[in-house]
What we know:
Layout: H1 2-19, H2 31-45, H3 49-56, H4 60-63
Organism: Bacteroides cellulosilyticus
Keywords: Signal
Signal peptide: 1-19
Amino acid sequence: MKRNSYFFISLLLSVVLFTSCITEDEYDNSPEGNFEALWQTIDRQYCFLDYKKQEYGLDWNEIY
Length: 64
């Protein structure tokens, strides 16, 4: 019984501690905020930005 309570307490503490580490950016619910959210997602996750910069010479920061 004591072992189960230690497990439950440690599980509860780890859930509380690790969920505080997750942060998400908040954007305004406006056309500008939607564009900024989309741009940040593409900038972080789109894998072909570097490829297109090398192949075609596109500077995405200049376009932004």
